[in-house]
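Incident log, entry 3
Record: SUMF1/EgtB/PvdO family nonheme iron enzyme (268 residues)
Problem: checksum mismatch between cached and fresh output.
Input:
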Amino acid sequence: MLLPTLLAQLFAAPQAAPAAVQVTPPADVCPSGTRLVSGTHYEHVQRLCTTWRLGHCYSFLPGMLAQEPVATPVHVCMDEHEWPNREGKRPEVMMRFVEAEKKCASVGKRLCTEFEWELACEGPETTPWPYGHTFDANACNASKDFIPYDEGKLNADERRVREIETWRLYQGEASGSRPRCASSFGVKDLVGNVEEWVRTSRKEWRYRSSLKGGFWAKPWAHCRGTNDSHGPMFRYYEIGFRCCKDPEEPVTAPEPAQASTPETTPSP
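Fresh output:
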């Protein structure tokens, strides 16, 4: 599927690269602090890599794209920032999937799905990073040096021991502090910063919980690629989440009925 598609695109008449699309949501559809993410998600997307280093791609050729089934319509309000969804506040970590579910429910929301998250990240143009087709180390918080962790301390029974080790390792930044790390839907920090719990969409994953977006020390992370290795009770020093909510479509008032004009009988 990929080769015929890419060859057809390669030999087609050259076209100017499309301008970036900024999606403006209709008024009153999504609550404050969320962005409307609406479009079609394709389960399988293949691209042509142009820069390959140490087992990962850092640049893709714009316009060379094969989108393959399953196609899933998406229409959701997504938190602009990682939990607690406050610009300027650092995202919370060491969250289990089940804890994230409860926190979203406490504010009348739910966890986002894997497919919703990917569409929000790629935008209508299906770019591999929220900001384009080539990795930029300064765009998102994904290129910090990795700090070796102490597994025993992270899993210690004593809460204070876990917290001290977590904050020794923590390199998350305040939400919204990198303006370029925003998708065309206006959702921030989807790549890097903290890894995010999502509800699994792909049937082949073994758990109902999955992780998206990488974290502050995973420079090869982009909009695709799912960490499906951990069940709902897992927690770690770089794991957070964001919430979603189904849109409340604005109610259109019915047009007032036209007053009927009484019929008149012409005079004889």
